Amino acid sequence: METKEIQKLIDFIAQSGLDEVNIETADLKIKVKRNATPGVAAPAPVASPAPSIASPAPSIAASATPPAEPKPALTDETKYLTIKSPMIGTFYRASSPETPALVNIGDEVKPGKPVCIIEAMKLFNEIESEIAGRVVKVLVENATPVEFDQPLFLVEPV
Amino acid sequence: MYDVGSKTLFLGKKILYLPTCHSTNDIAAEIVRDATYPEGTLIITDQQTAGRGQRGHAWVTSQGQNFTLSLLLKPTFLRPEASFLLSQAVALGVRNYLQRYLKSVWVKWPNDIYIHDYKAGGILIENTWQGSRLTHSVVGIGLNINQSTFEAPRATSLRLETGQLWSLPAELPWLLQSLEQYYLRLRNGAEAAIREEYMSCLLGYQQARAFRAGDEVLTGTIVGVSTAGRLRVEVVPEGRIREFEVKTIEWIWPAD
């Protein structure tokens, strides 16, 4: 793949809204990751997470072209991922009042691991993590309302 | 004991019958990832020792007299903002089954099954999401069939309303057939038709009723249900329409 093609690919990914893309062919392996974890503050902004960095400053592995500019210094929190609420409802940390919280700070999560319950109109929605990492912060109080797309957990990739 | 025969396409083709269990929804949640239990699998019991209703509420049922069952569904087509439709479709399926024998069957918001002003059934749905993708749903249904005495006030059964005993194995195929019919409508995208039918059998719709909302007692008319499932009440006398979440409003029944 030529540099130009890689540039095109990055532009495409930048516009796609994808957070992470891995491409592997016989002779190369590219990993592009967007460093634009949305802010922690709740309620979540409804608009698409506008990255504070002008271009999504992707880091490219196995590529001959270094990024045009060095990445601006990032605060610690930008390396965290968030698990967000897919719906409006009431956030519960446990499956029932008698059982312990599904995850606690320090626990490791991986895709498919149940992290919380969101109750909406008597529908009980178990939310599974789509990401892997360690929970560093629970952003919402138990038994309180949450909005669509509101960040629920801060997760440090491991 | 239970067999749905040819009445359904996929609901109840696989049946897990347990003479006794803590909660059919819990059993369903345990087997949900087991490929030997496909979509449509039915878990049915005669005796549920730890049945659940709304969060923190128990569902109490007499041994061998009523339907206590859970269905395993994979409505992966359902968007988070439209998930109340599943609740509506299941309630309509149960109601439509009872309509075989009875006229005045209603859905009390959000999804309780009422005959006249008495509760005959409840539904507890548990969904699992990966992000905004619904991977599977466990639909728990409790429906009073042959029970004739209740500790809870304002409860009834098919037997009390018809004056006869019913065979659970003979009735199950009809119940599942009706549920499947509504589930397939939902899968085929008949959202407007489901919402419309739900409104047509909503208990108290367009009637002035008394409600308790927190510490407040109010009179209002149910004027609708939002897409998200909130109850819309036009409050008398000011005429303002207010929307309510499940636990924020309670009915005040007229004295019997």
From TrEMBL, chain A:
Taxonomy, superkingdom: Bacteria
Signal sequence, renumbered to the chain: none
Annotated Low complexity bias: 39-66
Swiss-Prot/TrEMBL keywords: Biotin, Fatty acid biosynthesis, Fatty acid metabolism, Lipid biosynthesis, Lipid metabolism
InterPro entries in the cross-refs: AcCoA_biotinCC (IPR001249), Biotin_Carboxyl_Carrier/Decarb (IPR050709), Biotin_lipoyl (IPR000089), Single_hybrid_motif (IPR011053)
PROSITE patterns in the record: BIOTINYL_LIPOYL
CDD domains per record: biotinyl_domain
A molecular function (GO) term: acetyl-CoA carboxylase activity
GO cellular component: acetyl-CoA carboxylase complex
GO biological processes: fatty acid biosynthetic process
Pathway(s) of this molecule: Lipid metabolism; fatty acid biosynthesis
Domain Lipoyl-binding: 80-156
Region (Disordered): 39-75
Function: This protein is a component of the acetyl coenzyme A carboxylase complex; first, biotin carboxylase catalyzes the carboxylation of the carrier protein and then the transcarboxylase transfers the carboxyl group to form malonyl-CoA.
Protein name: Biotin carboxyl carrier protein of acetyl-CoA carboxylase
Lineage: Bacteria, Pseudomonadati, Bacteroidota, Cytophagia, Cytophagales
